[in-house]
Amino acid sequence: MFVTKSQFVRDLKDKEPVSSPFLVKFSAVGSDKNGKSFMNVVLLDRSGEIEARIWEDVPRYASTVVRDNYVHVEGRVQTYQGRRQIIINRVQPLREDEVEPKDFIAEGTLDAESLYGELLGYVASMQDPYYRALCESVLRDDAEIVDRVKRAPAAKSVHHAYRGGLLEHVVSITKILDSLSKHYGKLVDRDLLFLGGFFHDIGKVWELSFDRTTDYTTEGKLIGHLVMGVELIERKIAELEAKPGRLTGKFPTDKRLLAKHVVLAHHGEYEYGSPKRPKCLEALIVHYVDDLDSKVNAIAKFIEADPSPGEFTQMNKLYGRFFFKPDWARKETGPN
Ligand SMILES: [Fe+2]
Ligand SMILES: [Fe+2]
């Protein structure tokens, strides 16, 4: 049996009956004030995610409705405190061969291969032989990293949180850095800016697992992508130095330190997880451009996915405000 998916999260309307497969992103068992157990669930498909509640037969479902499982859900949409949720009546587990995985994986609208081609073009345009060799060793020559770079989301949620999102984010940043390097001219080193754009989030290819739902890996939780990026730079420089003829001499110390610094400082402030604040112009610029690009993407996607009619979106909890919906967001379009 192959379960076709005809209902997508984005299109679900209040009071609508639901009968459709979903991927479970999250589930937890709780109990109400009378001690009756219920399940809090987050379901997703490629168009978005929605909260759901199970009030009946909780012990029966607790082992099947778990993260990364496909389930067929029957129930009804209800609006609670201004937000849609599904009240689930019945759930059935589904095997992977009973669903079309593409229905559940949000992908970027841009093609990964052409984005990757653009990225390689920027790498090839670098002038500094050391910085360029370092970037090539990761983005051109390391097949495992290249494969993961093409598939990785840039985040678990919030910005570029879809397959290929990391590559989209990195190419977008590099384009902005390219124009800023022209704008600031001699004040900044274009190659160091590029290296920061390429490598600032490279640790995310191991910080996140993203085969079905996206989550942090153990390494991601314990080490994090900033330090993982620095470790990669150290490892690749050691490999380059060990290969005869790859570099003309040792990798210069100041360049090694600056390359690591732009990665370590890209979150900008201690409270955002940066062990160092930007201490050179390139690190400062990479930080602001990273922040800008992630916010533009997060807010655009939020507006795009917003189901409410009218001029403004629902409240965005992260930014604490409603956003004004431009014309492109008011047209009725289904997920594609
Ligand atoms: Fe980051
Ligand atoms: Fe980033």
Structural notes for this entry:
By secondary structure, the chain is α+β, with helices and mostly antiparallel strands. It contains twelve helices and seven strands. A five-stranded mixed beta barrel has the order 1-2-3-5-4. The chain has a two-stranded antiparallel sheet with strand order 6-7. The chain is elongated. The relative contact order is 0.10. The model has no long low-confidence stretch (mean pLDDT 91). The protein binds fe (ii) ion (FE2) (2 copies). The site of one fe (ii) ion has 5 residues, from helix 11. One fe (ii) ion binds at residues 200-201, 225, 266-267.
Structure summarized in a few sentences:
The chain is α+β, with helices and mostly antiparallel strands and 336 residues long.
Q: What key attributes describe this structure?
A:
alpha+beta, two-stranded antiparallel ribbon, 2 domains, five-stranded mixed β-barrel, 12 helices, elongated, binds fe (ii) ion, OB fold (Dihydrolipoamide Acetyltransferase, E2P), 336 residues
